[in-house]
Amino acid sequence: MSFKPHPRNNGHSTVLTFERTAVVNDPNWKLPIVPSFKLESPDFTAGGTLPQWARSGVANAGGEDRSPTLHWHGFPSGTKSFVLTVLDPDAPTGSGWWHWAVLNIPASIESLPQNAGATDGALMPSGAITLPNELRLESFQGAAPPAGHGDHRYIFTLSALNTERLDIPEGSTPAMLGFMMRDYVVARAQLTGLSRTDPEPASA
Q1: Residue 200 in domain
Q2: CA nearest 117: which of 84, 139, 141?
Q3: CA–CA distance, 79 with 113 (Å, rounded to integer)
Q4: Contact (CB, 8 A) for 39 and 70
Q5: What angle do CA 62, 63, 67 make, to 5 degrees?
Q6: Is 190 a domain residue?
Q7: Strand partners, 130
Q8: Per-residue pLDDT tens digits for 116-174
Q9: What residue numbers bound the domain in which 104 lies?
Q10: Exposed e or buried b for every residue in 85-115, given b needs 16+ CB within 10 A?
Q11: CA nearest to 176, candidates 129, 108, 109, 126
Q12: Overall domain count for the chain
């Protein structure tokens, strides 16, 4: 929300009243401007609804915390590694909600299978590191928007880096990862899925 002032004269002095206006949180604001490439999934269309199984189970949203299959292509030839993040910028926190963050994905990898974000990391490529999400779990947390909040955006961002490895402190947050990788990003691909939680019907 932003607040728009409206001067009003009450006969004695001018009083400012404020009207709240909606502002869409742009997660790319202030990020380096770089070329784009393609990130796709056979499990949902760009701008479409995420599968039920990609909702959260651990957060009691009726899902399985299963990450979707991802494929990518068209990244620069000088790419040396990738970083993958998933952010809900619409979470009512003031800072969004990080669902997944993986760094040091080798440049030879061009896809991740469904459920690569599982806690055991068995489907992750060798060398890749998963950081703790907002629940402090080193895994993919599925969508869990508050009831009655409407559609939330789940933005899968794959950044191509010109370094083979990022060395960041163990247990760092996804926000710290974003700050520390910014000077190495040479291209970026994004894919957005939606999810909503409808409110329970009112009891008679």
Answers
A1: no
A2: 139
A3: 21
A4: yes
A5: 160
A6: yes
A7: 102
A8: 999 999 999 999 999 999 999 999 999 999 999 999 999 999 999 999 999 999 899 99
A9: 26-195
A10: bbbbbbbeeeebbbbbbbbbbebeeeebebb
A11: 129
A12: 1
CATH classification at residue 130: 3.90.280.10
In a domain, 4, yes or no: no
Question: Do 36 and 49 form a contact (C-beta atoms < 8 A)?
Answer: no
- Please report, as a single letter, which amino acid is at residue 141: Q
The encoded tokens of residue 7 equal 């001067």
pLDDT of residue 14: 55
Q: What pLDDT, in 10s, does the model give residues 31-81?
A: 999 999 999 999 999 999 999 999 999 999 999 999 999 999 999 999 999
What tokens appear for 51 in the block? Answer: 């599968």
Sign of CA dihedral 54, 58, 62, 64: positive
> 135 with 117: CB under 8 angstroms?
no
CA angle 103, 106, 110 (to 5 degrees): 105
Q: Which residue in 46, 42, 134, 43 sits closest to 88, CA to CA? A: 134
Taking residues 83-98, what's their average pLDDT? 96
